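Structure tokens please, single chain.
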Amino acid sequence: MTATEDSFTNWKTREEIAESMIPLIGKLHRERDVTILIHSRSLVNKSVVSILKTHRFARQIAGEELSVTETLPFLHALAALDLGPSQIDLGMLAATYRSDDRGLSVDDFTAEAVAGATGTNKTERRESRDVVLYGFGRIGRLLARLLIEKTGSGNGLRLRAIVVRQGAGQDIVKRASLLRRDSIHGQFQGTITVDEANSRIIANGNEIQVIYSDDPTEVDYTAHGIKDAILIDNTGRWRDREGLSRHLRPGIAKVVLTAPGKGDVPNIVHGVNHETIKPDEQIISCASCTTNAIVPPLKAMADEYGVLRGHVETVHSFTNDQNLLDNYHNSDRRGRSAPLNMVITETGAASAVTKALPGLQAKITGSSIRVPVPDVSIAILNLQLARGTSREEVLDHLRNVSLTSPLRRQIDFITAPDAVSSDFIGSRHASIVDAGATKVEGDNAILYLWYDNEFGYSSQVIRVVQHVSGVEYPTYPAPAV
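Here you go.
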């Protein structure tokens, strides 16, 4: 057999193994609310090639490729257990098993590693929690995609309604079309139909009521059977407690804002300070996409090295707030054509750091440049550390944080020397450390942090909503503290 034939045979064998994994992953998700991951990347509803690519991507962060022949036995072991709702990372299971020297079988090791999710220890499955989207723009539609995707067995979050202003003719048809096809994020994964007579969009079996209103105080959610819901305001129209309280009506229990909150509204970055949310808190902000991008790696650096001061410069894709062509705008520079110019503007991310990391005494400044790309931004974080270090040490630290720490869903790590912004469209991490661009000299470290300011941020919002809903299930093996 030639080398070419041998490579092709190996590929076909791995395809067959990946194909056998799909029904096991699907059954665990639908019947037990178990999400199977590879280094924080979900394998639920993924194709054969996607599963193989996710395994191969492990080499970017773990230093070596992960084979389906290695992870399949762990998946079979999980399928045989009495699992409760949880997230289980096959990549972490395989890595910890390799480093374990006790000689345990895969079945015994797996049972021990996920013991907190089995038998009498397992989390009880909860009733589904109603969610309402107030606004249906860029972030709103991505949140809808994520909510529909995560409906799973029906015991998690359930998108019940969207609230929008009445548009011109065929409003609901046009909104459904925008959900179905996206110029940046591609086709919706599933089927979408429209029930114009009842003002509903049906997406993958989820009936979503479209409610038309210009005033949140005039919406009757109970008329649509909505109860104890979490409302996600993605309009940015109201940002303080008084304004957001207008949403608190019968049927709505909590309000989550997808923009920096003002005044005493808690600004939450999942993975960093979401545990500080008080059970009786009704109004929460998820801060900004840039705040979510810089705070997790800033915390990782501060915990290990200490941070005396820093500056963040964001090179940010343009947004709907800017003009396509030169025209009047309340802001001095944002009125200039977004796809034709680099536009210097302000960012509130630096000041928002103090809300998410109140223990950080370092002064963090920030500025931003909007550039002519429609999605994915990069934050350049320039830090003066409390002690000297080396580039190798910093990269090892951030790689380990991305693999084994409680921040592993927020921080990703990439070593590809030719990576560019479009490579990160669809990333679910809040921040991706570009190893090749990182610079360290003594007590000065400069980190280049990619982030999908649309999809990555929306993923962070969903994590906060899952947390306050009580449907954020534990991850196994447990991350290192």
